[in-house]
Amino acid sequence: MNRTASKIAVCIALIAFALLAFFPVAQEASDPARYTEYTASLDEKTETVLKLMAASTVTSAGISAIPGDTATPIAEKLADFSEYFLLILCVLYAEKYLLTLIPLGVFRTMLPLTCLTFIAGRIWNPRFMDRQGVKLLLMSLALLAVIPLSIRTSDLIYDTYRESIDTTIASAEQLSDETSELAAAEDTNMLRSILNRLSETKDSITEKASAVMNRFVESLAVMIVTSCVIPILVLLFFVWIIKQLTGVDVRELAPRAPVRPRGGRRREEEETQQRSSI
Predict the structure, then answer these.
(1) Among the listed residues 37, 43, 121, the one whose alpha carbon sits nearest the alpha carbon of residue 89
(2) What is the SS3 assignment for 189?
(3) Mean pLDDT for the chain?
(4) Domain residue limits at 96
(5) pTM check: above 0.70
(6) No. of helices (H) and no. of strands (E), the chain
(7) Is-contact 215 52, C-beta < 8 A?
(8) Nearest-CA neighbor of 47 among 160, 169, 147, 151?
């Protein structure tokens, strides 16, 4: 009798925990106000990416205005950077939304399912069901930690290269001003002294454009690592942790194509021939 009463008490406690997680805790955990520090970090990176995108576009247009075709390849390459920055921007917005969506899904799906698994263990096959419940609980904790930990890790790298990225934006703005002045001098043809030094000025600006492009490459690499690579590595790390703790390989959860037994196709052809002969 005492054993039955203890099982009932545990089941009631698990049901109460599941309801608590589904209603008030899920609503509180998905509140954007709880993640202001993380959203501020993502907003700062988003603003930086937008500045880099605008700077690369404006610089590309300015370099295209330089007389001659010497700097045209540089201008085309800078124009291509906008596509990469747009991809990084999409990843940053996805991380921002996942900050609230993942806790909502965990507290309204994963944790109630974990409680139901433990309740089923009190009724049937406790060892197996408890093991499954522990696996679900560990997966829930890993999902809750993956986005905040990836943001924290990427901030460490981003803070190291923040000054370099600001220098890239400033250099791009300075180069845009110089190319606009050069284009104005070429169009107006007002000062003969400027025209006499035009080839030297073009060569100097071309060298500066090449240096700015190298800075953009470095900034693009930093933003790809901090915004795309780090979250993927953190996710893979948690997948490895889950596999080590629970023995569950997340890749095995993916659907697989049915394996046809050896000789099955030949047997089907023989049956088809027998039907056709009849």
Answers:
(1) 43
(2) coil
(3) 80
(4) 36-113+137-250
(5) yes
(6) 11, 0
(7) no
(8) 169
